[in-house]
Amino acid sequence: MSKQFDVIVIGGGPGGYIAAIRAAQLGFNVACIDEWKNDKGGPAPGGTCTNVGCIPSKALLQSSEHFEHANKHFADHGITASDVKIDVAKMIGRKDTVVKQNNDGILYLFKKNKVSFFHGRGSFVKVADGGYEIKVAGAAEETLTAKQIVIATGSNARALPGTPFDEELILSNDGALRIGTVPKKLGLIGSGVIGLEMGSVWRRLGAEVTILEGLPTFLGAVDEQIAKEAKKAFDKQGLKIELGVKVGEVKTGKKGVSIAYTNAKGEAQSLDVDKLIVSIGRVPNTIGLNTEAVGLQLDERGAIVVDADCKTNLPGVWAVGDVVRGPMLAHKAEEEGVAVAERMAGQHGHVNFNTIPWVIYTSPEIAWVGRTEQQLKADGVKYKAGSFPFLANGRARALGDTTGMVKMLADAETDEILGVHIVGPQASELIAEAVVAMEFKASSEDIARICHAHPSLSEATKEAALAVDKRTLNF
To answer: How far apart are CA 229 and CA 431, in angstroms?
Structure first.
């Protein structure tokens, strides 16, 4: 017999579990279906972000950064540390513990908010009783019914054509997080967020890392000045990045992986590595959803077609996160999840795509919000620019990390902030001030006149705002 709910959420990642919890808080009877499993076969809600993305990668980045500091930077502080070693198995174990804590936290929130959780794969069966019948294929098959459905099934790693992931030699982000020993040579295809973060982890631990990027420019979505500054830092660290390459045949064997490619000059090259991480983007995940059973519309990429409010072509069916248009970011999915729950309740859910921050958690960190200088030029927008280097920031000097800068772009006439771009220490935290400012249509002068603690890295944001009008407090 079918179990009746007001709302069924398919997918328990950032968009799904947030949508389920918010809908329950608004008085709906909610079910959430998620199929992720832990190593014991139990439920592991949280999606890609929690299980093989944001959370575990940050755990490894933190561990590897500690290791590098102990080996290379402690001496600057008068700390002697000799014969420093890394226990990779313990590092991976810590990462797994962090992941499980987050899994368990989501299950606790479901219980606290009275969300019924079903462990298994959710799929459409048919239109039924003015709503939709959903099958849960898990340890025991169940049938659920609701008038409101939220699809939050996320995305999957894109493989190289003809070269599937085996997660032993050819790795997706999943396999990259489970490497058992430090490879002598590690190759990556793609210099996006995953490529740079995973490359940074294993370089710090001693691997010789080479990144092959097909685009002729480094981090094309990032402000050009910021991207150049970041590339200088990565080059100095020993992260080898080749741009403008065309990858050819990829072969695996007993000795590892061999990649044939042509460089930017059109010259034939080859790269032999122990393991290869492929990070060339992600594709929307609608596998097994049985969209054809109810006529749910997909686009040419396989993403679910939605309008500005995340409504699909079917009444009462919504979709959020990586499985729809827009940036594939966990926090974007969360915002959409909250907004959809509120719209179902007759409220006015809000998501501003112009103030969604982006972060790359390398060292230096890279973070930005709003438009880049090249975008403003292309759009014909008159603007003012100001920047300030961390080299001149007292807190950065005390930290021993003066790499990078804060750059601010403002409208030439109104002074409204149009974009803020940061490369340097704790950029992921500093960008939040810019997001708040832009959400409230602040001017660069507003930031310049706000009192910032001294000494703090955030003073660099204030100085960048002052520099927009060619002023400075650093005499």
So the answer is: 17
